[in-house]
């Protein structure tokens, strides 16, 4: 008998997860999303995410379903929530997507089902939000299962999802047993966390670890620059040590849904216990300060920014993807425009400049060639996509600012 799985939220986490579950014969997958334009593309067998192949979407649609009809929840065995967990303007957790979803699906939940939360969040969320919402209707852990399994999706990473170790935890031993049954059908290695909070905390730790280390190396970049030493050469040299060192690389800041946001979920929860998170706050500020450093370096070389024509290469938050969430490039472009610069950008993955809550800039990606490169006062490498003609840029640009270490140091290229 086939098991029916529902995945709510077909974004950067939910869509690849749905595709992977959909490949397994014991399962029929129902994908839910309230974004009509997104669903229309998926129904046509088209991927709206650059690193997910349309063929995979088409194959998924041929055997599975996507819908907005939450009444179908009653037919499912496993429901997985892959919902956004953004921050409010005051940098406090925004769990409105999870709470709203629970309210909509609760009437259709029945005994014997399993609900899994995959969204990144603070330790305690699953019990305080999910379990609390369900315990009036069910005996959670007995006639209804609740698990937490943190997503580890890494856009642009060529490692197959099923090869990334999958952590699961549950409200009871029965919940863990059920969770392992489902996830082990897709993931080669399933690891059991001691409890829900441990699993939730582990996901936050992964992102705090990266945030702090990127902040550290960005701070060291500024120090090295003052001393006249190249940070990328420093990292290359230090990386020769076969133990006790892991290289992290500087850039224009941090982006994506996880690294800039998730640490503040832990900060908020720690504050509830009367504790401070000094490293988290310092790393966040340092990764913002590096953007000021970059603007200052460009200003130093151009003398003034007003009316200067500046070309930014790459606006996605990391290479080889189309994801612009929290991209530092957006903040840098916005500040350059505010200072009067005439900014253009080139990004083969992002054709139209993204609109965010903070920024509404009307720009489209331009093509680059020999003639138009010469028109710009400077070019800045903000995201180092692999499919960009860096030799063309190097040959025909007046001044190049490189924040990603694309080139080795030379007289024409300024490392920032």
Explain this structure to me?
The protein has 416 residues and is of the alpha/beta class. It has two domains: 3-193, 3-Layer(aba) Sandwich (Rossmann fold), CATH 3.40.50; 208-415, NAD(P)-binding Rossmann-like Domain (Rossmann fold). Helices cover 38% and strands 13% of the residues. The protein has 13 helices and 13 strands. An eight-stranded mixed β-sheet has the order 3-2-1-4-5-6-7-8, sandwiched between helices. The longest helix is centred in the middle third of the chain and has 32 residues, at 196-227. It is globular.
Reported CATH architecture of the largest domain = 3-Layer(aba) Sandwich
- The name of the CATH topology of the largest domain is Rossmann fold
Contiguous low-pLDDT stretches (5 residues minimum) are none
The beta-strand count equals 13
Instruction: Write out the strand line-up for the largest beta sheet, numbering strands in chain order.
Output: 3-2-1-4-5-6-7-8
Main sheet makeup: 8 strands, mixed
Number of domains: 2
CATH superfamily of the largest domain: NAD(P)-binding Rossmann-like Domain
Specify the structural class.
alpha/beta
> Any idea what the shape is?
globular
The helix tally amounts to: 13
Q: Mind telling me the C-alpha Rg?
A: 23 Å
Sequence of secondary-structure elements: EHEHHEEHEHEEHEHHHHEHEHEHEE
Report, as a whole number of angstroms, the end-to-end distance.
Answer: 59 Å
**Percent of residues in helices:** 25-40%
Kindly provide the name of the CATH class of the largest domain: Alpha Beta
Which percent range describes the beta-strand content? Answer: 5-15%
Mean pLDDT: 95
């Amino acid at each position: 008998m086939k098991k029916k799985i529902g995945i709510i939220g077909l974004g950067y986490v939910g869509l690849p997860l749905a595709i992977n579950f959909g490949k397994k014969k014991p399962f029929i997958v129902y994908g839910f999303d309230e974004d009509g334009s997104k669903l229309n593309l998926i129904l046509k067998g088209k991927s709206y995410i650059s690193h997910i192949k349309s063929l995979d979407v088409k194959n998924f649609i041929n055997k599975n379903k996507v819908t907005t009809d939450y009444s179908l929840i009653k037919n499912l065995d496993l429901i997985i929530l892959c919902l956004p967990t953004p921050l409010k303007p005051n940098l406090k957790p925004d769990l409105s997507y999870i709470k709203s979803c629970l309210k909509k699906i609760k009437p259709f939940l029945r005994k014997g089902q399993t609900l899994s939360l995959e969204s990144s969040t603070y330790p305690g969320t699953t019990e305080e939000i999910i379990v609390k919402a369900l315990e009036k209707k069910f005996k959670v852990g007995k006639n209804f299962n609740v698990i937490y399994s943190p997503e580890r999706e890494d856009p642009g990473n060529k490692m197959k999802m099923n090869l990334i170790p999958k952590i699961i935890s549950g409200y009871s031993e029965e919940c863990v047993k059920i969770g392992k049954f489902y996830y082990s059908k897709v993931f080669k290695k399933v690891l059991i966390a001691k409890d829900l909070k441990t699993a939730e905390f582990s996901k936050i730790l992964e992102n705090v670890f990266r945030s702090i280390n990127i902040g550290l190396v960005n701070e060291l970049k500024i120090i090295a620059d003052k001393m006249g030493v190249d940070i990328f050469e420093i990292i290359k040299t230090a990386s020769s040590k076969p133990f006790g060192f892991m290289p992290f690389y500087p850039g224009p800041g941090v982006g994506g849904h996880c690294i800039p946001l998730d640490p503040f979920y832990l900060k908020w929860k720690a504050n509830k216990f009367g504790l401070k998170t000094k490293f988290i706050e310092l790393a966040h500020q340092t990764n913002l300060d590096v953007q000021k450093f970059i603007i200052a370096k460009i200003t130093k070389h151009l003398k003034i920014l007003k009316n200067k024509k500046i070309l930014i290469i790459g606006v996605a938050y990391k290479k080889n993807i189309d994801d612009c969430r929290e991209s530092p490039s957006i903040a840098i472009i916005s500040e350059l425009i505010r200072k009067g610069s005439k900014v253009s950008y080139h990004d083969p993955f992002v054709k139209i400049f993204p609109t965010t809550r903070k920024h509404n800039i009307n720009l489209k990606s331009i093509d680059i060639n020999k003639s138009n490169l010469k028109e710009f006062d400077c070019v800045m490498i903000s995201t180092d996509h692999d499919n960009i003609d860096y030799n063309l840029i190097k040959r025909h640009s007046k001044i190049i600012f490189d924040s990603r270490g694309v080139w080795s140091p030379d007289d024409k290229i300024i490392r920032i």
